Amino acid sequence: MTHVLERRYRRLLRAYPKDYRAAHGEELIGTLMEAARPEDRRPSPRETLHLLAGAFTVRVRASRAAGVPPWTDGLHLGALIVAMVTFAQLPVLPYFDYEIWTVLGIVLMVALVRGWVRVAALLAAFAAVWTSWPIVWGGFYVPGLDLGPMYGDLAPVAPYWVVAAASAVLAVRRAGAGRASGKARGWGATMPARSPWWLLLPLAGWALQLTQVPVYEPVWVVSRAGVEVVALLLVLAATLAARDGRWALAAAVYLLPGLVYLAENLLVTGVRGFLYWSVLTALVVASLIAARRVHTRA
Q1: What's 197's DSSP letter?
Q2: Which of 13, 32, 158, 239 is deepest in the core (most CB within 10 A)?
């Protein structure tokens, strides 16, 4: 019976990172086994919750980028998420539209994942200016240049400008840090690289386009809202667990283009729209407040 309980604890322990299991796994298993009653056949719900909460805390703290301030890490993560969500909605499949624009988006996302913020800043600035062409230049059009979408409203171009602004801040900040330390590295990586698994997000968005279900259909609207609410709840939990504000800042960067959309469409937004944006805003504000409080206590 003891062996059965130990096997169950070890199965739950797999939620922890491998290096943590190697360093603390036996100690944690021993502590749990000592606390268990002899007649227990399986971990209690409380013990299971304790293990899973501990795994979440360890993983969140291990995911922090080393060698950069929390605000820099959060800004980088926010720019990456906005870029990926924006290009994931680009009409790519089943008909391959905007070939050059899609390639530009892929290079931009790879640059952000690899930490090449100077390259990303240039690409994002070009994307922001191009999509805003009708706003900047009015009806002036350059024949033969059909690289990507162009918009006459602020809401569609807001994500591109958010990514451009965040990338520019990161590029300038890292350039200054490199000069101050004598370790400026040209156009190479100037931010810690992130997991390549992030690139699955736009790929999943393009794959969903094969269903040819319009994005305004209730099934997609409700699904996206549910994913966003769950993700922002995890941001709040991660902020409290890691005791810093990088995830809260990333969430605020992600929300910013949405608030621009809300402001531009304020008069035509219904009750459900206001409820949706209110929930997202409340979760982001709660995360920012939590980040401020844990920072003050620290």
Answers
A1: G
A2: 239
